[in-house]
Design goal:
The structure holds two protein chains of two kinds. Chain A has no helices and eleven strands. By secondary structure, chain A is an all-beta fold. In chain A, the strands form two sheets. In chain A, strands 2, 4, 5, 9, 10 and 11 form a six-stranded mixed sheet that branches. Chain A starts with a strand and ends with a strand. Chain B is mostly beta strands. Chain B has strands spanning about 5, 10-15, 20-25, 30-40, 40-50, 55, 65-70, 75-80, 90-95, 100, 105, 110, 115-119. In chain B, β7 and β8 (about 75-80) form a beta hairpin. The chains are: A mainly beta, B mainly beta.
Chain lengths: ~110, ~120
């Protein structure tokens, strides 16, 4: 069956360090993959999209990689700040106009 | 633009009652999605519309759930009768860009959600 896995445990890091979140998937060949941020009590907010023919995408302190052979995406936040604390969701295009979301990884950045 | 607007933000009802959730998508967006989020199951797609037409409702859990989109600026998700297991946060999202050549879907803009509690 179709499956997306993200780090199930919360990630705790110190301010200034790089946070790395993982998204693994099986039984898909997505045309693109997206990362969203969700704060408590709010809806997900789009951060980055990377296409299957792209290895890496950057936006300010954010970097996403996409390895279609490993079926894995890594999401990096450099020089992390307490304001980066949130849940981060990866989302896959599954074709047929559908996107499915991973369960998310909670990130805590300590000052 | 005000973004996607959902109402109510919170709803508490008793089992067996009808619940109606409302959504106003971003103006000009031609796709609208309804999701349900719980701790156990995460974010699940229930149904989506394109140009007000329901395209895929395979995620709707039961016949007790129904959704309509009478025009481009309004959609409803109705649960009748409601049950305690329907308690969740329901999100509406809208999207504009249809990724050409792949049939895929680009960025979705989510509303703030409706937190539903069925007692």
């Amino acid at each position: 069956s179709q499956k997306i896995e993200q780090n199930s445990e919360a990630l705790n890091i110190q301010e200034g360090k790089t946070a790395t979140l993982t998204c693994n998937y099986t039984n898909y060949s997505p045309a693109y993959l997206q990362w969203y941020r969700q704060d408590p009590g709010r809806g997900p907010v789009f951060l980055l999209l990377i296409r299957e023919n792209e290895k890496e995408k950057r936006k300010e302190r954010l970097k996403v990689t996409f390895d279609t052979t490993l079926k894995q995406s890594l999401f990096h936040i450099t020089a992390s700040q307490p304001a980066d604390s949130a849940t981060y969701l990866c989302a896959l295009d599954t074709g047929g106009f559908k996107t499915i979301f991973g369960a998310g990884t909670r990130l805590f950045v300590k000052a | 633009d005000a973004g996607v607007i959902q109402s109510p933000r919170h709803e508490v009802t008793e089992m067996g009652q009808e619940v109606t959730l409302r959504c106003k998508p971003i103006s000009g967006h031609d796709y609208l999605f309804w999701y349900r989020q719980t701790m156990m199951r995460g974010l699940e797609l229930l149904i989506y519309f394109n140009n007000n037409v329901p395209i895929d409702d395979s995620g709707m859990p039961e016949d007790r759930f129904s959704a309509k989109m009478p025009n481009a600026s309004f959609s409803t998700l109705k649960i009748q009768p409601s049950e305690p297991r329907d308690s969740a946060v329901y999100f509406c999202a809208s999207s504009l860009v249809h990724l050409p050549g792949t049939g895929g879907m680009e960025t979705q803009y989510f509303g703030p959600g409706t937190r539903l509690l069925v007692l």
